[in-house]
Amino acid sequence: MTTQTSVNESTADRERGISKTQIWAGRIISGLAALFLIVDGTMKLLKPAVVVKATRDLGYPESQIVGIGVVLLACTLLYIFPRTSILGAIFLTGYLGGAIASQARAQASWFNVVFAFVFGCLVWAGLWLRDIRVRNFLRYPH
Fold first, then answer.
1. pLDDT digits (tens, 9 = 90+) for 95-107
2. Which residue of 38, 43, 85, 112 pairs with 108 in a disulfide if CB–CB is 3.0 to 4.6 A?
3. Using one digit for the tens of pLDDT, what is the confidence trace for 37-72?
């Protein structure tokens, strides 16, 4: 049943203006962004020395690292599943906005600030390419 729904959604998306190429480009972009975020979240759970140092440099205590990692992994999992991908993208936008604010507050290099911003853009670009609901929402005035 699930496979049939996915096939029908892909067919419906193509009929409404999303080509197979765009769908796959969106999947690849989303997959790469999600892969990075999963690795980042997992590293926060494992707490290697480099992560502890980076987190302390941003002004957060070591006791907060695992919680930050859990939040990141939860948001990313919501983003990965098609049914909750929009909610996940919204949550990841908030998470990455917090990362940008933390980097700016700590007066980190512009690279660190822009890096988080670029990942936020990749999250939404991948979703826009692969999900007709996002395109329809952005296309029509409400």
1. 999 999 999 999 9
2. 112
3. 999 999 999 999 999 999 999 999 999 999 999 999
Specify the residue for token string 């979240």: 41
Q: The tokens of 78 are what?
A: 């919501």
CA–CA separation, 68 and 75 (whole Å): 11
Q: What is the DSSP string of 71-94?
A: HHHHHHHHHHSGGGHHHHHHHHHH
Tell me which residue has tokens 């999250």. Answer: 123
For residue 68, give the nearest of 105, 96, 100, 41 by alpha carbon.
Answer: 41
**127 with 134: CB under 8 angstroms?**
yes
Q: Which residue's entry shows tokens 């765009």?
A: 22
Rounded to two decimals, the pTM is 0.85
In the prediction, which pLDDT does 3 show? 43
Among candidate residues 85, 96, 77, 79, the one with its CA nearest the CA of residue 134: 85
